[in-house]
């Protein structure tokens, strides 16, 4: 199909699918720490899935951003993906501070949520950049 040859479509597909996939993976890992509680199909699970999907969405749109005009430095995918993944994960991590968890695990879960967001962001931006490109090549395909 000609539609899937457009870099923006390829980048969008990769970002959305990986974001949703990592969302369910992250929800699975979160549910494995819940003993005896129904976790699946709860608002918490959907919050985790949506947060990881949001990482993919933000990374998709940030594909045109390859240079920072404020700092006057190039922004490479290996910096952009983890940075955006960690920033988007911060709100999910904040909610973990108010969760009814043992006090010795709260800070561990807080930092692991941000770290995993950065790792997911790295992988999503890596694959999206390989498949759909970035910068001028990507932004020109958005205009068509």
Tags for this model:
144 residues, mainly alpha, two-stranded antiparallel sheet, 2 strands
Describe this structure in words.
The structure is a single chain. The chain is mainly alpha-helical and 144 residues long. The protein has one domain. The chain has five helices and two strands. The protein has a two-stranded antiparallel sheet with strand order 1-2. A hairpin with a 4-residue loop joins strand 1 and strand 2. It starts with 6 loop residues before the first helix and ends with a helix. The mean pLDDT is 86.
Topology, element by element:
Elements: H1 7-32, H2 43-61, E1 67-68, E2 73-74, H3 77-96, H4 103-132, H5 135-143
Antiparallel strand pairs: 1-2
Helix pairs in contact: 1-2, 1-4, 2-3, 2-4, 3-4
| SSE string, helices as H and strands as E | HHEEHHH
Question: Roughly what fraction of the amino acids lie in strands?
Answer: under 5%
- Choose one word for the global shape: globular
Quaternary organisation of the protein chains: single chain
Strand order of the largest sheet: 1-2
Main sheet attributes: strand count, strand direction, barrel closure: 2 strands, antiparallel
Give the mean pLDDT: 86
Report the count of strand segments: 2
Rg, nearest Å:
17 Å
Poorly predicted tracts of residues: none
What is the count of distinct domains? Answer: 1
Fraction of residues in helix:
over 70%
């Amino acid at each position: 199909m000609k539609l899937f040859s457009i870099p923006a479509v390829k980048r969008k597909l990769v970002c959305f699918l990986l974001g949703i996939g990592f969302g369910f993976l992250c929800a699975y890992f979160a549910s494995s720490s819940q003993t005896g509680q129904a976790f699946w199909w709860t608002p918490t699970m959907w919050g985790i899935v949506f947060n990881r999907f949001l990482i993919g969405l933000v990374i998709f749109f940030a594909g045109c951003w390859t240079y920072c005009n404020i700092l006057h430095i190039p922004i490479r995918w290996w910096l952009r993906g983890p940075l955006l993944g960690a920033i988007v994960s911060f709100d999910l991590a904040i909610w973990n501070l108010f969760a009814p968890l043992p006090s010795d695990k709260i800070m561990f879960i807080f930092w692991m949520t941000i770290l995993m967001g950065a790792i997911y962001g790295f992988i999503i931006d890596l694959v999206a950049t390989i498949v759909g490109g970035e910068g001028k090549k990507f932004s020109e395909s958005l205009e068509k």
